[in-house]
Design goal:
heterodimer; A: alpha+beta; Ubiquitin-like (UB roll); five-stranded mixed β-sheet; B: alpha+beta; Aldehyde Oxidoreductase, domain 3; five-stranded antiparallel β-sheet; four-stranded mixed β-sheet; 3 helices
Chain lengths: 84, 150
């Protein structure tokens, strides 16, 4: 079983509460977006302050928790949106 | 392809020029301007930050979605980031079509999609020094430090 490494980016309030903007997370393959978020929350000291089911983007497009992830993906945790 | 992100004042007339074409008999535009919420204290400034790479791509996907529904339209849109004074525009959209119904309907579609899908965040700094993260669903959360732009 190999590991999947993804780059997790945190923005706005999520960057504030965790003190992190970018974190690498490793999960066993196969894995989903939700697996990576769970690993990120466990890895960060303030990870519990992130919601368990945040809005997420995978490789700069909105993603679902059940979407599979691949080695080298970029995940972004998106706080509630305020554009427009 | 021009970027959908600007860090200074928006120019709606430039977007309207981009969608102009001899076959377009109607142009609809939307300008969203920064305002203080009704229950806020005095707002000193409002800062917009974004996941800029995704913002650019999401604008492109929203345009494609609109063009699937209204194939003859042209769309130009930009979001402003950084500190935006009250009363100035944060988003500008221009949609041109052969006829007014498609232009108006597609313009509405685009701004609604932008509100739901663009990875943009808004931080309000109040006169007492406190700050709030505001979202499009009416949510608010305390903020500790300055937003960073990426």
């Amino acid at each position: 079983m190999h590991a999947i490494r993804v780059r997790c980016r945190l923005f706005a309030r999520y960057a504030e509460v965790t003190g992190e903007e970018e974190v690498e997370v490793e999960v066993p393959a196969p894995a989903t977006v939700a697996d990576a978020i769970a690993a990120l929350r466990a890895q960060l000291a303030e990870g519990a302050r992130l919601p368990p089911h945040p809005l997420v983007a995978r490789n700069r497009a909105h993603a679902l928790p059940t979407d599979p992830i691949a080695d080298g993906d970029e995940l972004a945790l998106l706080p509630p949106l305020a554009g427009g | 392809m021009p970027s959908h992100v600007v860090h200074g004042p928006l120019a709606l007339d430039r977007l309207i020029s981009q969608v102009a074409a001899p076959e377009h008999g109607a142009t609809a535009s939307f300008l969203g301007t920064v305002r203080a919420g009704p229950d806020d204290g005095p707002v000193v400034r409002i800062e917009y930050s974004a996941y800029e790479a995704m913002l650019d791509e999401e604008f492109g996907r929203i345009t494609l979605d609109a063009q699937q529904r209204w194939p003859d339209i042209a769309v130009a849109a930009q979001h402003r980031l950084g500190e935006i004074p009250l009363g100035e525009a944060s988003i500008a959209i221009a949609v041109a079509a052969p006829h007014r119904a498609a232009a108006l309907d597609a313009c509405r579609f685009v701004i609604e999609a932008c509100k739901q899908r663009l990875p943009v965040w808004k931080r309000e700094v109040l006169a007492d020094g406190s700050a709030l993260w505001r979202d499009n669903e009416g949510g608010r959360a305390a903020s500790g430090q300055s937003a960073t732009e990426r």
